[in-house]
Write a structure and sequence with these properties.
The complex is a heterodimer of chains A (263) and B (218). Chain A has 263 residues and is mainly alpha-helical. Chain A has one domain. Chain A is 85% helix and 0% strand. In chain A, helix 4 packs antiparallel against helix 6 and helix 4 runs parallel beside helix 8. The longest helix of chain A is centred in the middle third of the chain and has 42 residues. By secondary structure, chain B is an alpha/beta fold. Chain B has a single domain, classed as Rossmann fold. Helix content of chain B is 34%, strand content 27%. Chain B contains 6 helices and 10 strands, in the order E-E-E-H-E-E-H-E-H-H-H-E-H-E-E-E. In chain B, strands 6-7-8-3-9-10 form a 6-stranded mixed sheet, sandwiched between helices. A 4-stranded antiparallel sheet of chain B has the order 2-1-4-5, covered by helices on one side. In chain B, a hairpin with a 2-residue loop joins strand 4 and strand 5. In chain B, helix 3 packs across helix 4, helix 3 packs parallel to helix 5 and helix 4 packs across helix 5. The two termini of chain B are 26 Å apart. Classes of the chains: A mainly alpha (263), B alpha/beta (218). At the A-B interface, helix 2, helix 4 and helix 5 of A face helix 2 and helix 3 of B.
Chain lengths: 263, 218
């Protein structure tokens, strides 16, 4: 049993070292973007990645954000009396539950489930069918073609998803307020109350969760995809291991940051 | 100066020797065909010359410089390999598989790249396939796209792995005519592996792999 725990810790350590190595490689490759021709290739691949990981997740993001907005405001009415004077409490409840915790967490889970697993599968398939040979044959850096677009697009996607998720949640929760209330609270009032609750620290923490979390998820998906070997089942195993690691790492990051800053 | 020099190459896979003390020299603008059989190392020979495989011992030298010492930019100008299968990245269209490396390594504008690709694609009769993706090509079309890429790059040495395989008579004649005209125009050397039934009469020399070495065919 001890050897199993030791083996697991060693594997996790290797993954972390690998991801730190990829981070170093990404930073080391950034100067290549100073060349206009290479920047052009990067830009095309970055836009493709951003479209796949950020924009195409909009529909599922909308549905989950709407359901969550309805759920959160229903719960708010279960604990806070139905009164226009309590608008600050509604806003505070929304801010603590959605903005600080659930919004980032669910956006990260959507990114892992939709995009990170797709990147792992894509890179894994390319590794399985020796397509990196094709890249070597034309002497192009895999870091510029695969690493940098993911390295930049994932954090930006997660940030956009946070923002989008919160916007939809705000609108849905206001719709619930309209439904429960006899009137008196306008959307402007509600948004103003929400903005009053929002602090600079919360904005910084949310952005940190998006930036660090997005990088971590993106680099892990590449790391596991790149470690696919010769068996067909290696791809499914890579996706499974990648998702497990990403979920664990992203939860630790979220809870850790929230614990450090808010508690 | 020799265009390509394979010097005392040893190569083995999992302890199974493929080449032992293999030597080959190609002059500038020379065309050499290597007749290959099954698993005798034809593709490995080209991969060595392209720098995609490292020999266990020996040197691969292009225009007086060891491939292993070249920058990626210098390697791009030195060799390009046309694969027998694959060789194209599935995340790019066929066109971008050719255009992106040029954009990456040169200062050519996108317009200039398009103008270089179009006539050759037309000549090889693959222009309609350029906007498709690699998975939409059959094996002959894949080899033609690899050949097109090599000709568009105009390196010092073009390496072609069984490019004639599976082609109809007319298609093969057309392909060879285009290749030879381009080779004459730009002066690159060509090392091509061939198989039973392929034409080799256009080559300056024809060799065969025997006992881990290259031997001339009369």
């Amino acid at each position: 049993m001890l050897s199993k725990i030791g083996g697991g810790a060693r594997r996790s350590g290797n993954v972390l070292i690998g991801i730190i190595g990829l981070l170093g490689l990404a930073l080391n490759t950034c100067p290549q973007l100073l060349k206009p021709q290479r920047r052009r290739i990067f830009w095309l691949l970055f836009k493709r990645q951003l479209y796949n990981s950020g924009l195409r997740a909009a529909s599922i993001n909308t549905i989950i954000a709407m359901l969550l907005g309805i759920f959160v405001m229903s719960k708010a009415y279960a604990v806070i009396p139905n009164n226009t004077q309590f608008i600050d409490y509604y806003a505070q409840f929304f801010n603590i539950v959605v903005n600080r915790e659930i919004g980032p967490l669910i956006s990260g889970i959507i990114l892992i489930a939709r995009s990170a697993s797709a990147v792992t599968a894509e890179v894994g398939q390319m590794q399985l069918y020796r397509q990196f040979d094709a890249l070597s044959a034309v002497h192009m850096s895999p870091a510029l073609v695969f690493l940098l677009p993911v390295f930049f697009a994932f954090p930006v996607s997660l940030l956009l998803m946070f923002f989008y998720f919160n916007m939809i949640c705000v609108l849905t929760s206001f719709a619930m307020i309209e439904l429960y209330h006899d009137g008196g609270i306008t959307l402007i009032d509600y948004i103003r109350a929400l903005l009053q609750q929002l602090t600079v620290v919360e904005v910084v923490v949310s952005m940190t969760k998006a930036m660090v979390g997005g990088c971590l998820i993106g680099l892990a998906s590449l790391y596991f995809g790149y470690h696919v070997e010769d068996r067909f089942t290696d791809v499914s195993r890579a996706i499974s291991n990648s998702n497990t690691f990403q979920l664990f790492a992203f939860f630790v990051l979220n809870i850790g940051l929230s614990y450090l800053v808010y508690l | 100066m020799m265009r390509l020099k394979l010097d005392s190459i040893d190569l083995a896979f999992d302890g199974r020797p493929i080449f032992q003390d293999l030597n080959l020299q190609l002059k500038p603008s020379e065309i050499v065909c290597v007749q290959t059989g099954v698993l005798d190392g034809g593709s490995s020979l080209l991969r060595l010359a392209a720098g995609l495989l490292s020999p266990d011992s020996g040197n691969v030298v292009v225009d007086g410089m060891a491939l292993k010492d070249m920058t990626e930019q210098a390697r791009f100008g030195a060799t390009c390999m046309g694969f027998e299968a694959g060789g194209l990245l599935s995340i790019f269209t066929n066109y971008n598989n050719i255009a992106f490396p040029l954009l990456y390594h040169t200062d050519m504008s996108e317009m200039a790249i398009a103008e270089r690709i179009a006539p050759l694609a037309d000549a090889l009769q693959v222009k309609a396939l350029l906007q498709q993706e690699p998975h939409q090509l059959n094996d002959v079309q894949t080899r033609l796209m690899n050949l097109l890429r090599a000709m568009v790059f105009r390196p010092k040495l073009v390496l072609l792995d069984e490019v004639q395989s599976g082609m109809s008579f007319d298609m093969r004649e057309n392909m060879l005519n285009v290749l030879l005209a381009e080779q004459q125009a730009h002066g690159y050397s060509v090392l091509m592996t061939t198989t039973v039934g392929d034409r080799t009469d256009f080559a300056d020399r024809t060799l065969a792999i025997a006992g881990g070495k290259l031997e001339p065919i009369q």
